[in-house]
Amino acid sequence: MSPRITWILRNHPIFSMYYYAHFVGGDRNVRERFRGHEWFGDAVYFCENYDENCFDPDYDNLPMEHFEPMVHEVFGREPTFG
Predict the structure, then answer these.
(1) Which residue in 42, 43, 16 sits closest to 30, CA to CA?
(2) What is the pLDDT of residues 10-45, one digit of tens each?
(3) Could you tell me how far CA 49 lies from the centroid of its own chain?
(4) In this predicted structure, what is the pLDDT of residue 55?
(5) Which of 24, 26, 31, 63 is the most buried (most CB within 10 A)?
(6) C-alpha atoms less than 13 angstroms from C-alpha of 54 in its C-beta half-sphere
């Protein structure tokens, strides 16, 4: 996995706090400590476009059954090592 993706995933919980921390007594701006990092904007974009909308009850989504064949395909593969 690329260093950029690894960094975004590692810091995802901090960036996600922007959307809910203030409701539970936390600091929604805790991600600001990373401002200036080359991948700050990428992490913000990821959370805005691929994470936050998952919590919107009115978001237009597909039923779970739509993904079942994909899950079977991926988990039905023979594991490869190396």
Answers:
(1) 16
(2) 999 999 999 889 889 999 999 999 999 999 999 999
(3) 9
(4) 73
(5) 31
(6) 8
